[in-house]
Write the structure tokens for this entry.
Amino acid sequence: MLLTNYHTHFELDDGSGTLQDYAESAAAKGLSIIGFSPHAPLPYTNDWAMTEENCAVYLGLAKKVKKEWAGRLEVYTGLEIDYIPGKGGPSNNKYKSMNLDYRIGSVHSIMEPESGEELSVDGPVEDLIRLLERRFGRNAENMVDTYFNLEMEMLEAGGFDILGHCDLIKKRNTDNRFFDPNMKRYRDKALEMLKIAAAKDVVIEVNTGGLSRGAITELYPSPWMLKQCCELGIPLTLSADAHQPDHLDFHLTEAVKEVKSAGYREIYFFSEGKWRPQPI
Ligand SMILES: [Zn+2]
Ligand SMILES: [Zn+2]
């Protein structure tokens, strides 16, 4: 089967290596298709997304690499775009003029109302603790609800093709330190989100990035969510959320097996402007 990866970061956001390094690594690893998806600029100071200036540089670089590899490797230009209520998201018109091949919609943060600061659920655990204490009075169930609510808002607003790491809220919940993802309330909320995803024209990515960075021991989405995705008929695609070129194919073959055991018989890949199924 074709191995693909549409979720990659590089030296102009929070990854390492150049786009050229990624293309070379993709070819060496036998990937047929690669997509670039650095973090789109954010409306607040941070150390992980591209600046507006670098975003323009990125678009130029991607165009060049695409041309250089034509006929040898399919290269696509994307962005991973954050949804931040009232401040921006994948549905913003500015992304339409960028001529992107695809967009990944992701929620990485929740606002802390006292300071107005966006606190990451993806970053250091201290940020999550600060968020829990200041916004949620240590009620982690409310935090989980808010996370999935933000994803549902993003799905309703649209403007993207791939829903990024749809249960990222579990990333810093090592040993169920803050909440139990097997609780009915967690599952009900996650399922509510998946039902909205099923009603929209989006593909959910099976993301191995939490594994490659040693943060979690399972995929995004969790195995039980993958089964639900299958029941709901949601198309899936493969993603390694690579932050370095040698992680491009991390755990992808194993992820396909997990997708299969969730009930799927096909997985989707994006090529020449279309999502296409391939048997697994
Ligand atoms: Zn992400
Ligand atoms: Zn990412």
